Amino acid sequence: MTINATDKIQEALKERAHDESRPFCYSDYITVTPNEDGQAFCPKCGSDDLMREVEGVGVEYGYEWVMEHIVKEDGERVDIEDMHRDLLDEIYPAVKFGELEYSASHVLETIDPTAFNMGANEYADSMVEEGQLIELNGDYYRLDGITE
Ligand SMILES: [Zn+2]
């Protein structure tokens, strides 16, 4: 799974992916309308081995690609380094040398960029665990109605 998120978010995303895609028979290359019970069988070949179609986007098996598409399309990409800078500056006071003043985030980022980056990633991962962010291929997103 390339999407990293809480189970609750994965489930909500899959539900949205279901709503925003339609069953599709690849052999007959037609969109299939589900029956009253929500079951989908191709009216031509009778198959229930169907792909999912997102109009104008593509046709593929499974929901994962639809979920990825929704996160990328509707999500707001978060700059985790910026988020980490804000956090550091909230927690730690600026460093002063007489008249000179340097924000805590600037000091850490300049002196130890490795530690800064590790901190940013740890912070972002903890937000994923709390259901506030979704990670997709190393990028982090907020998604209205899905993340908290
Ligand atoms: Zn068919």
What is the fold's blueprint, element by element?
Blueprint: E1 3-4, H1 7-19, E2 22-25, E3 30-31, E4 51-54, E5 58-60, H2 64-74, E6 76-78, H3 80-91, E7 95-97, E8 100-102, H4 104-111, H5 113-129, E9 134-136, E10 139-142
Helix pairs in contact: 1-2, 3-5, 4-5
Bound molecules: zinc ion.
Zinc ion binds next to loops.
Task: Assign an overall shape.
Answer: rod-shaped
Taken together, the total number of domains comes to 2
Helix-and-strand structural type: alpha+beta
- Uncertain regions spanning at least 5 consecutive residues: none
Ligands in the structure? zinc ion
**Biggest sheet: strand arrangement:** 1-9-10-6
- Report the major sheet: 4 strands, antiparallel
Computed CA radius of gyration, to the nearest angstrom = 22 Å
Amino- and carboxy-terminal Cα gap: 21 Å
Strand content is 15-25%
SSE order: EHEEEEHEHEEHHEE
The percentage helix is 40-55%
So how many helices? 5
